Structures are given as structure tokens and as C-alpha cells.
């Protein structure tokens, strides 16, 4: 179960952020040469004084557009991302437990049919 939780965190850490002022996209896999940000740095881990390397907009001007390779339309993704971020670890555990319990019940019901 803890592996699933870590996986979810890693996925979130790779979310890209788009500058709403100029359209520059910060990609965690690439980092940012201009500010000596090493590759693999999540947007949330950027220094508070980090600014858009193109137009120097502040971090608050950026919108979460999700991990690379997903469909765009960042408004939906933004709402989705915020919703997940608001979940406490306990709530995430409940979700994971619930999924496991459902899978278990399904398994048992198959047994009952035989
Ligand atoms: Zn910008």
C-alpha cells in the first residue's frame, strides 16, 4: 500500500507548470538551466524566489498542466490536481483500503459462484 502512495507522489512531482503570462512550460524532468535548477526538481520544490526564465513572472503565475504526455486542457487538470492535493494521507489510505476491500469482495463473490 505504501508503494502505491509513493507512486502517486512521484507522479505529482512530475507535473508540468505553464506560465500563464507567456506560455513557458516548466518541465521537472528538464529542470531550468537559467536558475541552475537540476533535472528532476518538482515545481513545488523550486525556490520561492524562482521566476519564469522567459518573462520573470512569479511562481503564482504558473498553472499546473499535469505530467508530460497527457492531454492538455489545464483548467480541468488544475481542479483535479488541487482536489487530490487537498486529500490528507489518512484520506488517501481510506481510498486505497476501499479499493482493496472492493477487490477482495469481488474475489470472494467469484468463489461463491463456483
Ligand atoms: Zn513567463
TrEMBL record:
Cofactor(s) for this UniProt protein: Fe(3+)
Residues that span the membrane, as ranges: 94-113
Protein's name according to its UniProt entry: Rubredoxin
SUPFAM superfamilies in UniProt: Rubredoxin-like (SSF57802)
Organism for this UniProt entry: Sphaerospermopsis reniformis
PROSITE patterns: RUBREDOXIN_LIKE (PS50903)
Keyword annotations of the record: Electron transport, Iron, Membrane, Metal-binding, Transmembrane, Transmembrane helix, Transport
Ranges for domain Rubredoxin-like: 14-65
Annotated family: Belongs to the rubredoxin family.
Xref: CDD domains: rubredoxin
InterPro entries, alphabetized: Rubredoxin-like_dom, Rubredoxin_dom, Rubredoxin_ET
BP GO annotations: alkane catabolic process
GO MF terms, alphabetically ordered: electron transfer activity; iron ion binding
Amino acid at each position: 500500500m505504501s508503494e502505491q502512495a509513493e507512486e502517486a507522489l512521484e507522479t505529482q512531482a512530475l507535473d508540468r507548470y505553464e506560465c500563464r503570462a507567456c506560455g513557458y512550460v516548466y518541465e521537472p524532468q528538464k529542470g531550468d538551466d537559467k536558475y541552475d535548477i537540476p533535472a528532476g526538481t518538482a515545481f513545488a520544490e523550486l525556490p520561492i524566489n524562482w521566476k519564469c526564465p522567459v518573462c520573470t513572472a512569479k511562481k503564482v503565475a504558473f498553472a499546473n498542466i499535469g505530467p508530460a504526455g497527457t492531454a492538455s486542457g489545464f483548467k480541468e487538470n488544475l481542479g483535479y490536481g488541487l482536489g487530490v492535493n487537498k486529500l490528507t494521507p489518512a484520506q488517501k489510505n481510506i481510498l486505497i483500503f476501499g479499493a482493496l476491500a472492493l477487490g477482495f469482495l469481488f474475489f470472494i463473490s467469484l468463489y461463491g459462484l463456483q
